[in-house]
Amino acid sequence: DEVTTIPIPALAASQVTQLATAVLGGGPIPPEVLADIVARCDGIPLFVEELAHALIEQLPSSIEAGGTLPGAMPSTIPVSLRDLLRARIDGLSALARDVVQLAAVLGREFNVELLLAAAGVDETALRGALREITRAGMLRPRRGALGETVVFKHALVRDAAYEAMTRSARARLHRVALDALMKRQPGLEDTQPELVALHLE
Questions:
Q1: First to last CA, the chain
Q2: pTM to 2 decimals?
Q3: Rounded mean pLDDT for each run of 10 residues along the chain, 201 residues in total
Q4: What is the DSSP string of 60-93?
Q5: Secondary structure of 165-190 in the HEC alphabet?
Q6: The Cα angle at residue 112 between residues 118 and 123, in degrees rounded to 5
Q7: Which of 128, 136, 134, 129 is nearest to 150 (CA)?
Q8: What number of other Cβ atoms are within 10 A of residue 74's Cβ?
Q9: Quick one: which of 22, 76, 148, 158 has the fewest CB in 10 Å?
Q10: Up-side HSE of residue 172: CA atoms within 13 Å toward CB?
Q11: Which residues pair with 149 in a beta bridge?
């Protein structure tokens, strides 16, 4: 099969400014903060969005309608995209953090019913955690042929949640996920042996 490679150039400084301004609610942003965002993000849209979300979380009162940001980026905001994503995951409530890590074990996109079966928590609590993670911009709901599913906004968000766990925690959650899958789909080892092998590995 032929594959067409489509190069996606980095955002220009003006596009970074537009995106950051939109995420921050359209209010005025000090030139020093904008310059810092442009310099840090290398034109990567996900990095721009996550940096803007970190500003919202750290300076909520300054970003409310009519508010003004301070003239410099807070030193507490991580420098790299990976650290920024990890910090945003750490900022979730304990249940939401557990849910996003279990979701990361299930994959980039996952079925909500499977997540509920694997999580073993009250459905109301789990859906509250999913709303929190969605409001944080990490997950997006989808409806399709497979029923109610949720997808990570970006593969790097899923990777950050997965890598934030210890090896033993990942192993435990893979076992939990596999048990839930095999209860829902008897004979899974015959129909999807590669999926069973993935979780066991």
A1: 30
A2: 0.80
A3: 80 92 81 88 91 80 58 82 91 95 94 91 94 92 80 94 94 93 86 88 89
A4: HHHHSTT----SS--TTS-SSHHHHHHHHHHTS-
A5: CCHHHHHHHHHHHHHHHHHHCCCHHH
A6: 70
A7: 134
A8: 12
A9: 76
A10: 8
A11: 111, 142
